[in-house]
Amino acid sequence: MIKVENISKHYGTLQALDNISFTINEGTCFGLVGPNGAGKSTLMKILSGILLNFDGDIHVRDWQVSKDRLKIKQQIGYIPQEICLEDTLTARDNLILFGNLYGLKGKELQHRMDEVLDQIGLTDRVKDKVVTFSGGMKRRLNIGCALLHKPGIVIMDEPTVGIDPQSRNSIFSIIHQLKAEGSTIIYSSHYMEEVEQLCDSIGLIDKGQLMEFGRMEELLEKYAKPSLFIAGEGIELGMLQSFGEAEAKGNGYLLNSEEPLLTLEKLVAHCREHRLEPRRLELYHPRLEDIFFNLTGTQLRDA
Amino acid sequence: MWAIARTELKKTVQDKGLWFWTFVLPIVFIVAFVAIFSGDESTSYKEVVTQIIPGYTIMFAFFIMISMVIVFVKDRERGMVARIASTPLSIHQYFFGKWLPFMIVVLVQITVLFGFGVVVYDLPLGDPFALILLSLALAFIVTGWGMAMAVIVRTENMGIAMTQILALGGALLGGLWMPVEFMPEVVQNISKALPQYWALQGYKEIILSGGGVGDIWFHLVFLIVAGVAGGVLALVSYPRFLRQSRS
Ligand SMILES: Nc1ncnc2c1ncn2[C@@H]1O[C@H](COP(=O)(O)OP(=O)(O)O)[C@@H](O)[C@H]1O
Ligand SMILES: [Mg+2]
Q1: Which residues 6+ apart lie within 8 Å of A124 measured at CB?
Q2: Cα(A54)–Cα(B82) distance, rounded to whole angstroms?
Q3: Is A161 on the interface with B (CB under 8 A)?
Q4: Strand blocks (E) in chain A
Q5: What's the DSSP call for residue A29?
Q6: Taking every pair of C-alpha atoms in chain A, what is the biggest distance, in angstroms?
Q7: Between these two residues, A243 and B68, which has the higher pLDDT value?
Q8: Confidence class for position A246, pLDDT limits 50, 70, 90
């Protein structure tokens, strides 16, 4: 279990994290979601034992971060937001460097390198210099360097920023494989869909504050009520309000309803009667995006 | 620790700029200045080469600071400093691993430039033990100061500018270009606070006066203490350096 207790962090006068607490069960995937500048990387760096000056405490298993830093570091694989590789050296040299830093040597290191290279799909490029790699390949090697020592906890800070869909998929399959092996994963992103797809529990962070924390389904149930989406000529807010609570969304309207199917029936009848032909009329499934909007009043993407 | 040192050494060997600054340029300078000054009737040939070869060796040894600044600032800017801080490697091991390859480069540089002097200009060497100790002390101070500067400067350009001030200003005031005896007394007093001065006086003591370790002990202590000060400054500045690391 990873227990984060009342973490606060200041950079000078700027408060990057404000009294954050949560717990992650081992073997699960935790997603930290928030816009740029929310404090995700700061929290990741504290969890990885990089930043030492902060208030609060972190427990990992039976260890306390303030006392057992080395033991915790040996259990963690930190994958930074930036690509941290020696790009004038080969992939192999980079893997050896990080393997050595975690105390791996000789046959054991060679064996783990083979396994990891297979996992990140770079076996045939191992002798090439990193400068010759594409962005996606660098990202994968960046991940591989943190997996050599078989960390029980993998911390990934926005691993999919700025890469093509194909590389993103291969990173997802690495994550699924890690999950299957029972690793604990702490994953940060400002892409909602990724976190929805990968994570068991999530924390929503904005301006250094943890706005919400919990299991994915719980949060979706709690915040984003089932609703209908309707758009088209002649569809107006006034008319919709007689069916329930309505609000504008995108180029149409969102109609909240406790019984969406029933409301849908009524809406269809109404449209027939008034000869309205909506362009879209559908059940709307609540997304993480909506929860974030409900909590902060800002869209994640333009934030 | 060795992993860091090995990696750094590999990068260093591939760095063409470093080869140019460290070996090619100093040899060009030495050849040019020996040609210019050996025509001078009033000073002996031995004095000329003992001024010029150790003098330019010392001056160019200081330029290792530029390479160190570039390596450290790059590591900070691409988040490598934070990445390494997430591994079990201690701060001391980190610095030792980063420092060792540069120490080796400077020692090779001194060996090559003096070797060049011996082969081409019959540079006498004097007591080998004293010579090796003094060269170690010289490599130690330039790399110690290099680490301090690399960790403290905000940008690469600032580091390059400061190295040039230290290397060229120190060369001028420390008597590397022209013996301090020819300079005004005020300047001569400033010289005595500069590592360049003590390094050159040490080499002259060994080569021209046949001095041994006993004759240059103060020179050695001065250089080593200054080098240690640089190392300590680097260690003390590390937390801020880490905080500024990206990602
Ligand atoms: N080394 C630093 N010094 C000063 N301020 C920083 C530093 N690192 C991050 N910040 C600030 O802290 C806040 C949180 O940053 P960060 O944790 O990187 O957010 P995120 O990863 O969610 O984009 C931002 O306002 C950022 O400008
Ligand atoms: Mg970030």
Answers
A1: none
A2: 16
A3: no
A4: 2-11, 14-24, 29-33, 55-60, 63-64, 76-79, 153-157, 184-189, 201-206, 209-215, 227-231, 246-249, 252-256, 280-284
A5: E
A6: 79
A7: B68
A8: confident
- The protein residue whose alpha carbon is closest to atom 8 in ligand 1 is A42
Which residue's structure tokens are 């490599």? Answer: B139
**Dist. CA A282–CA A189, nearest whole Å:** 29
Which pLDDT does position A200 carry in this prediction?
93
Residue A96 CA to residue A91 CA, distance in Å, equals 9
Q: What is the pLDDT of residues A46-84, one digit of tens each?
A: 999 999 899 999 999 889 888 888 999 999 999 999 999
Mutate to test the interface with A, among B83, B241, B243, B245 (most CBs of A within 10 A): B83
Walk along chain B (247 residues) in steps of 10 and give the mean pLDDT of each run: 93 89 94 87 84 96 96 95 96 96 97 96 94 98 98 96 96 91 90 96 95 95 98 96 87
Q: How confident is the model over A250-271, as a mean pLDDT? A: 86
Q: Answer yes or no: are the C-beta atoms of B61 and B140 closer than 8 Å.
A: no
Which residues, other chains included, contact A275 with Cβ-Cβ below 8 Å and sequence gap of 6+?
A: none
Residue A303 confidence (pLDDT): 41
- The answer to whether A186 touches A22, Cβ cutoff 8 Å, is no
Which amino acid is present at A159? P
Asked whether the beta carbons of A17 and A43 are under 8 A apart, the reply is yes
Write the single-letter amino acid at B166.
Answer: L
CA distance A41 to chain B (A): 7
Q: ipTM of the predicted structure?
A: 0.90
Backbone φ/ψ region at A135: left (φ over 0), alpha (ψ -120 to 50), beta: alpha
Instruction: For residue A79, give the chain B residue with the closest CA.
Output: B83
- Among the residues of B165-216, which ranges form H helices? 170-173, 185-191, 195-207
A164, A206, A188: which is closest to A20 by C-alpha?
A206
Taking the CA of A15 as reference, the closest ligand is: 1
Query: A82 to chain B: nearest residue by CA?
Result: B247
The answer to whether the beta carbons of residues A143 and A174 sit under 8 Å apart is: yes
More confident position, B18 or A290: B18
Domains of chain A: 2-213 (3.40.50.300), 225-285 (3.30.70)
Of residues B154 and A165, the one with the higher pLDDT is: B154
Chain-centroid distance of CA A155 in Å reads 10
Q: Whose CA is nearest to atom 9 of ligand 1?
A: A42
CB of B11 within 8 A of CB of B168?
Answer: no
Per residue in A81-114, pLDDT tens? Answer: 999 999 999 999 999 999 999 999 999 999 999 9
Q: What is the pTM of this model?
A: 0.88
